[in-house]
Backbone:
């Protein structure tokens, strides 16, 4: 198949590009900074020659949008909103104008659309959409609005011959440097991976292998459209999530952090505490009802695989440095 990945140079795009290319698919990445023959330049905001890549493609998986790994200032929040809505709108325009439109358009969304809650899990049918919770920072509601506008833009695109799926993805865990797992593992290795603000908030996640398999599953399942949660079926409280990660790496303790300590740490990392403090208790009902079987349904097994791969990558990098230094 020919698969087009707008915004496919980030962590998730790199995972998909690598896996889908290895499976023998023709993968075209739309990016502002093309570097490889399979990269095509675009600006994520206006139609241009890049739209030719969409015409005749089998699948579009739109991943474009400003990274959430930043301080949630008003300027950055607006950039997150605009980059997601504009890129989704223009992808829809390219599909609508195509002589041979793709059969399916998978649009990245986020599990952050759901409410901050502890009492029950959020699935696609009964989950509570966020934005009206009490006792949380006001700007968390803006994150929900970003997700809602993101999905609405796809839903309203006039593409009658293209099936549309919104991927409400949890945090994708892979051992790649710079990804969310890499950051969490670094905290654990430094002894900082303890409970944050009590650690009762739920962490929803998905192993990178299952993320790829779910994308392939949704491409093939012509009867599935609309919002689909991409999350492992076992969300768990942050304190337990980090306890498993520490134990898997071999770190005996993790220092706890209060809310204000989390604020200071997020500031130092140029990130935001919403990523640490919001309780994302999300379950993949539609995937499971459609027959998808997770290879990594539980965090303990997934963490073991990710840590093994992270150790192997570090060992390989060390051997490469030694060879270069000795040459």
Residues:
């Amino acid at each position: 198949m020919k698969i087009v990945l707008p915004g496919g140079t980030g962590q998730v795009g790199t995972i998909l590009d690598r896996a889908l290319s290895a499976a023998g698919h023709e993968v075209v990445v739309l990016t502002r900074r093309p570097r490889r023959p399979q990269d095509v330049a675009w600006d994520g905001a206006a139609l241009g020659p890049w739209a030719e890549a969409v015409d005749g493609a089998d699948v579009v998986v739109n991943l474009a949008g400003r990274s959430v790994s930043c301080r949630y200032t008003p300027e950055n929040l607006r950039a997150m909103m605009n980059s997601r809505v504009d890129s989704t709108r223009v992808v829809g325009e390219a599909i609508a104008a195509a002589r041979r439109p793709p059969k399916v358009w998978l649009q990245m969304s986020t599990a952050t659309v759901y409410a901050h809650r502890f009492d029950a899990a959020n699935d696609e049918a009964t989950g509570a959409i966020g934005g009206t919770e009490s006792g949380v920072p006001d700007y968390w509601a803006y994150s929900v609005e970003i997700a809602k506008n993101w999905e609405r833009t796809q839903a309203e695109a006039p593409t009658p011959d293209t099936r549309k799926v919104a991927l409400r993805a949890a945090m994708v865990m892979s051992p790649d440097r710079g990804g969310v797992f890499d950051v969490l593992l670094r905290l654990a290795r430094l002894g900082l991976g303890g409970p944050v603000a009590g650690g009762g908030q739920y962490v929803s996640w998905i192993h990178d292998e299952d993320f790829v398999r779910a994308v392939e599953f949704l491409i093939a399942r012509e009867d599935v459209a609309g919002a689909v949660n991409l999350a492992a079926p076992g969300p768990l409280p942050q304190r337990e999530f980090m306890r498993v990660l520490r134990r898997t790496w071999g770190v005996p303790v993790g220092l706890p952090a209060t809310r204000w300590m989390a604020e200071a740490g997020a500031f130092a990392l140029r990130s935001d505490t919403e990523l640490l403090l919001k309780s994302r208790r999300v379950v993949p009902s539609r995937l499971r009802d459609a027959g998808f079987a997770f290879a990594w349904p539980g965090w303990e097994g997934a963490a073991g695989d990710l840590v093994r791969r992270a150790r192997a990558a570090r060992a390989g990098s060390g051997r490469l440095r030694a060879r270069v230094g000795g040459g």
About this structure: The chain has eleven helices and eleven strands. The radius of gyration is 20 Å. The mean pLDDT is 92. The CA atoms of residues 319 and 325 lie 10 Å apart.
